[in-house]
Amino acid sequence: MSSAIVCKDLVVQRGTNVILKELSLTIESGQILGLLGPSGSGKTTLMRSIAGLQKIKSGEISVLGMKPGVAVLREKIAYSTQSASVYSDLTCEENLKYFASLFSRNEKTVDEILEEVDLNVVRNQVASSLSGGELSRLALATTLVGSPEILILDEPTVGLDPVLRIQLWELFNKLAAQGKTMLVSSHVMAEAEYCHGLALMRSGQILAHGTSAQLRAQTGKEKMEDVFVALVKGP
Amino acid sequence: MKLSRLMSMTRRVLQQLKHDPRTMALLVLSPSLLMTILKYVYYSKPEVFQHVAGSMLGVFPMLVMFLITSVATLRERTSGTLERLMISPLTKMEFILGYAIAFGVASLIQATLVSSYAIWVLGLKIAGSQSALIFVAILDALIGLSIGLAVSTFAKTEFQAIQFMPAILLPQLLLSGLLVPRESMPRILSDLSNVLPLSYAIDATRKVIMGQGSIAHDCLVIGLSLLLILAAGSLTLKRQTK
User: Would you list the DSSP string of B164-207?
Assistant: First the structure.
């Protein structure tokens, strides 16, 4: 199995504030890595660095063997921010068609994606009239166009009802089975169950990285919340 | 640059305008309203109306497109959509040209309407051709657009973006020869006036109205400053943040 994303000794500094402190992380292709941690731990900065949006101070990032942000890579990567970055004055369908048109390859049609995220009913509504859950699904949908090989999703399930959340995680697993690599952040520890691998993050560093079973065995705790606390406190 | 991406960029901006009929109506109709007021303010002095109305045809498009562009690009920046575009295959050139074409279409409609209204309804006499007038108006609109794009990077909120209008456009307006002929200004001001694009915009519109002299030189200056400001504007579109 090859590594899709490799970060080595990554340092990101904003002003005098060091956000990422020599962080190293590897994500295998076709894997869903859940990035868990409290807000302010640097999850978003890490994701932005991998997406190619963040200047890094030192260290290395390689995405599919390339430097983040290079033109070839921009055809293959999708990043969805925490707040839904869509055009609030356009309809769902217009948003999707626009984002789809930017990419040269689209495996799925706009109709299929609308179906997948369950937005067919509101396809002609402008984004500003959508509910919070619908809006985050629209943002997710706009990352699915263009057949990305790497999906970076910042808190995609925030504000969704449990049924929908499970549906979305099933969708993520389906995408991973098709060979897509996903980095998904969350502060809901329970969502760890759906990921192939987990990285627990705190103050700019990776506390632990492994499968949920490994982390449980390591700490001897059952609930993810307790696992996290045990890792923070140390042995 | 890819034509299909440029076209969808343009289509998207036009769709956004279409979803905002109130802005469209204000954009297209308010210059005609202002022209009407001008006409009756100078009712006893029709020659002043001739003079001022002509200049206003050059001022409206620049003012309006400056405002629209600075707010529109600021919105792209704050909503995170610009960031998404910056990591998509869309190029900066396609982004800027997309806006330029879409807003160019809007200013074509605006200029056609206001100049027709001024000529046919308000009795503005033009010696040159109306299409030359519209052509100059579109160039003016694009100047406004490019300045708007460039300054939007210095604004963090929409309030600030709007405040750039008095700070950046009004000095140009005062120095443009609209109020007093540029030749009668103190040397330093007339020199300053000579390097500001709005001065040439107003000169060109006046020349068309009076039918005196060629506008080729003015249009060349406007075109070159347009390229210069657009280049500066494109530098403000950063793919990476610190």
Answer: HIIIIIHHHHHHTTSSS-GGGS-HHHHHHHHT-HHHHHHHHHHH
In a domain, B238, yes or no: no
- Convert the pLDDT of each residue in B89-120 to its tens digit: 999 989 999 999 999 999 899 999 999 999 99
Q: Which residue has the higher pLDDT, A9 or B232?
A: A9
Q: Mutate which of B78, B83, B84 to disrupt the A interface (most A C-beta within 10 Å)?
A: B84
B105 part of a folded domain: yes
Please indicate, yes or no, if residue B242 is contained in any of the structural domains: no
Spatial strand order of the sheet with A197-202 comes to A77-80, A150-154, A181-186, A32-36, A197-202, A205-210
Residues of A in contact with B8 (CB under 8 A): 97-98, 101-102
Interchain CB distance below 8 Å, A53 and B16: no
DSSP secondary structure letters along B109-137? HHHHHHHHIIIIIS----SS-HHHHHHHH
What range defines the domain where residue B227 resides? Answer: 3-233
State whether residue B129 sits within 8 Å of chain A by CB: no
How far does B73 lie from chain A, in Å, by closest CA?
12
* Overall number of domains in chain B: 1
Distance CA A86, CA A83 (A): 9
Lowest model confidence (mean pLDDT) among B3-7, B176-180, B195-199:
B176-180
A interface residues, B as partner, C-beta within 8 Å: 14, 48, 51-55, 69, 71, 74-75, 77, 79, 81, 83, 85-90, 94, 97-99, 101-104, 126, 142, 146
B171-184 burial string, b = 16+ CB within 10 Å, else e?
A: ebbebbbbeeebee
Q: What is the model's pTM?
A: 0.89
What is the value of ipTM here, to two decimals? 0.88
The answer to whether residue B12 neighbours chain A at the CB level (below 8 Å) is yes
Tell whether B53 is covered by a domain.
Answer: yes
Q: What is the mean pLDDT of residues B185-194?
A: 91
pLDDT on residue B7 = 96
Contact A223, A57 (CB under 8 A): no
Inspect the interface and report whether the beta carbons of A55 and B240 lie closer than 8 Å. Answer: yes
> Inter-chain contact B81–A89, Cβ cutoff 8 Å?
no
What is the pLDDT, as a whole number, of residue B154? 83
